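Q: For a teaching handout, I want to show students what a protein-ligand complex looks like in token form. Below are the inputs, and the small molecule is NAP. Please produce the holo structure.
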Amino acid sequence: MWHWTRPFRRQPRAARVDMTGKSVVVTGASQHSIGYFVAATLVAWGADTVVTATARCETMANALRTELEGIDGAGGITEHPLDLADATSVAAFAGWYRRRCNELHVLVNNAGVGYLAEIGDIDMGRMRALFDINVFGLVDLTNRVAPLLKAQQSGYVFNIASTSGMKGAKTGTVYAASKWAVRGLSQCWQAELRPHGVHVTCVCPSEVQTDWMGRTGRNNPNKLYAVDIAETIMAALAMQSRALWPELAIFANNPWKED
Ligand SMILES: NC(=O)c1ccc[n+]([C@@H]2O[C@H](COP(=O)([O-])OP(=O)(O)OC[C@H]3O[C@@H](n4cnc5c(N)ncnc54)[C@H](OP(=O)(O)O)[C@@H]3O)[C@@H](O)[C@H]2O)c1
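A: Here is the structure, written as tokens, with NAP included.
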């Protein structure tokens, strides 16, 4: 049966993407989830792509590096701890990155958490903690590296929002509001960064079968896997640089089919 652990295609579908010598940052790559597959797809792309994948703590970052290095044909990989809820950690990461690279071609703001509760039951502490990661941490990091993008007059920022940020639903106040915020700020960044040649794309996945919010063990081949989001990003990168894909939603085509 198809499973997320299937080997990477050495030559992904979006064959026009030239990542030679490009520097990439992917946040929240520690789990075998969306961030991991985005990082792994870019790592598998070739020896000249330098991928910086972040995890919340040093131990997980080191484990992540070892795993990414095991991918067939792996290119340059660095790892670094980054806790988006901690402003000191964000500043330390951005400072380290800027000292080390001074270039950034692709930033994937992936890290995010969920919290579901109905109005009347919302724990405001948990709401603030979620916004610290999903919104404030994402802005803080991008704010610190945006000067690199502007100086280069090129680059790509992918903000991972959600279809939850497109349509409200029961228990969605906190999570949906954070993803709506990501969609809104993505539009602001497009207005600000397009004149500098920088592409900002907001990616809104529907349900993806990761361990998100403890939902382990899902493996329906008709529903989205993390690798599908990685391939979506590669498809956007494969477009001519004159074109901008401002926002996209991605759904499973026939998720009702049970195999
Ligand atoms: N799965 C879905 O159905 C779905 C649908 C639409 C959108 N999304 C969005 O896609 C993104 C990735 O989701 P996923 O399904 O891959 O979730 P996941 O498996 O829970 O992975 C989330 C990642 O974010 C990291 N993270 C959590 N808190 C962090 C913090 N304070 N600082 C830095 N990193 C932190 C996690 O690191 P740790 O390992 O340290 O916890 C993990 O690497 C999220 O933004 C999510 O909202 C997911």
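A: Two things your students might notice: Residues 27-31, 33-35, 55-56, 82-85, 110-113, 133, 160, 162, 205, 207-208, 210-212, 226 surround NAP (CB under 6 Å). The two ends are 10 Å apart (CA to CA).
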